[in-house]
Each structure stands twice: as structure tokens, then as C-alpha cells.
């Protein structure tokens, strides 16, 4: 029983080579769905032996769904370009432990890194994500931001994905700002409407939860910074939603 690696990309020349090499440790094919990258992402992917499909970006969930028909296997390992399996996750897949029980999706723990520093506070660990699923009965949601896998019988497994998403706090802030806009538009399209107090309330709650209840306070300046970034994201998501409401 084979496994297909599936990755969506846009300007990922920094990571895509390492990502494909890692996927081929457990997969017999790798499918790249690329959003017309302007750098060497496609060239590197082809050099590494991946099949490349190009598609203008449809949103997080729909873009992943677009790649499924190109995967010959039922079991899909759907990592981002900056994600890699930890040794325990590799062993779990290579020893075919995912076939034990009637499960169609596996939720792994995610270790998030800022440069080479593990962020294991402010609610960032354990951060569970489903990146491994059987496409016969499970599939990505149609959410355009932070999609989830819709499955019939999901199992949480205590093995890990390594996520090297950011080199600096500036990158985290920029990404959170981008995501806040996408989230606001998604909420607006779903008919969500709020009052002017919502951004301040949610931003404050996010900070208190991350800094005090999720142990950011015990991690010095990094703990304070991450808590403030989470508060910024929560605030901006709803502030942008209010702006969309007013523009309508």
C-alpha cells in the first residue's frame, strides 16, 4: 500500500527541496500543486523527482483538494513546504501503524520553531494537525484559510511534525496580518456580523490566555512577544471584519 506526498507551494525555493527529500523517505510519489511561483520552486521540485501541477491559488482547502486526483494512492501525506516529519512520525508511517484500527485520518503533534528555537508555550504546543489521511473517506475542507481535514474516524497520535515556518518575529507578524485578512473575508462571506467591541475583547482574551494561562509569562521576552502577536491576530481579524461590514 503506497503513500502519496502532496504539497501546495508558492515561492518555496528555500524549503521545497528538503521537503521533497523528506517525503520520499515514506512516500512513493510526491505531487506539487504550485500557484505559479516566481522563483525556482518548480524547477527544484522537478529536479527532485516530484510531479508538478500548476494551478492559480484557490484557497488553502480547495488548492489541496485540487491535487487529490493526481495522487495514485489512497493514503495522502499532505505537508506544507516548511514542514517535515520527525523521526517518531517516520517510524509510525514506515511501520504501517496507521493501518491498526479503522481510522481514516491521523492528527500529529506539531513542533513550531522560530528560527531554531522551539515555541512550546503560549498554546503553540502541542498544536495538533491532520496531515495524513485516506482520500477515500477523508478530504480537505473548503475553507480558504487554515483548512481542516473532514474525516469519519480521526485518531490523535503522539508523534510529531517539525514546522520551521519563520526566521524572525517580523515574518510571524506579516503572516498573521495576511491570515487576519483572509479570515475576516471568510467570516464575512459566511454571514458573520459583529459589533465594535469584538476586536478589543477578543484581542484582550487572546493575550491573557496565551501569556498567563498558556505559560508565555515563564518564557521571557519571547513569551510576551508571542502572546502579543496572538492578540494582534485576533484583534485584526475582527477589526478587518468590521471594515468589510462598513464597506458593504
From TrEMBL:
<dbReference type="InterPro" id="IPR001173">
    <property type="entry name" value="Glyco_trans_2-like"/>
</dbReference>
<keyword id="KW-0328">Glycosyltransferase</keyword>
<dbReference type="InterPro" id="IPR029044">
    <property type="entry name" value="Nucleotide-diphossugar_trans"/>
</dbReference>
<dbReference type="Pfam" id="PF00535">
    <property type="entry name" value="Glycos_transf_2"/>
</dbReference>
<dbReference type="GO" id="GO:0016757">
    <property type="term" value="F:glycosyltransferase activity"/>
</dbReference>
<keyword id="KW-0808">Transferase</keyword>
<feature type="domain" description="Glycosyltransferase 2-like">
    <location>
        <begin position="6"/>
        <end position="91"/>
    </location>
</feature>
<protein>
    <submittedName>
        <fullName>Glycosyltransferase family 2 protein</fullName>
        <ecNumber>2.4.-.-</ecNumber>
    </submittedName>
</protein>
<comment type="similarity">
    <text>Belongs to the glycosyltransferase 2 family. WaaE/KdtX subfamily.</text>
</comment>
Amino acid at each position: 500500500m503506497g503513500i502519496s506526498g502532496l504539497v501546495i507551494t508558492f515561492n518555496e525555493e528555500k524549503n521545497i527541496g528538503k521537503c521533497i527529500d523528506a517525503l520520499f523517505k515514506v512516500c512513493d510519489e510526491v505531487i506539487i500543486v504550485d500557484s505559479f511561483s516566481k522563483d525556482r520552486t518548480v524547477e527544484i521540485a522537478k529536479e527532485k523527482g516530484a510531479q508538478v501541477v500548476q494551478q492559480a491559488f484557490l484557497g488553502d482547502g480547495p488548492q489541496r483538494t485540487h491535487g487529490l486526483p493526481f495522487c495514485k494512492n489512497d493514503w495522502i501525506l499532505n505537508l506544507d513546504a516548511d514542514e517535515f516529519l520527525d523521526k517518531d512520525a517516520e517510524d509510525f508511517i514506515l511501520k504501517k501503524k496507521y493501518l491498526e484500527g479503522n481510522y481514516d485520518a491521523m492528527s500529529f503533534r506539531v513542533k513550531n520553531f522560530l528560527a531554531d528555537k522551539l515555541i512550546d508555550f503560549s498554546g503553540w504546543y502541542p498544536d495538533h494537525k491532520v496531515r495524513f489521511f485516506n482520500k477515500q473517506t477523508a478530504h480537505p475542507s473548503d475553507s480558504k484559510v487554515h483548512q481542516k481535514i473532514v474525516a469519519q474516524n480521526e485518531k490523535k497520535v503522539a508523534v510529531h511534525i517539525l514546522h520551521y515556518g519563520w526566521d524572525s518575529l517580523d515574518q510571524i507578524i506579516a503572516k498573521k496580518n495576511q491570515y487576519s485578512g483572509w479570515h475576516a473575508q471568510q467570516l464575512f462571506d459566511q454571514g458573520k456580523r459583529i459589533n465594535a467591541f469584538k476586536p478589543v475583547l477578543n484581542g484582550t482574551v487572546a493575550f491573557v490566555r496565551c501569556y498567563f494561562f498558556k505559560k508565555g509569562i515563564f518564557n521571557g521576552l519571547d513569551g510576551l512577544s508571542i502572546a502579543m502577536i496572538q492578540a494582534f491576530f485576533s484583534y485584526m481579524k475582527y477589526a478587518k471584519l468590521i471594515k468589510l461590514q462598513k464597506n458593504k
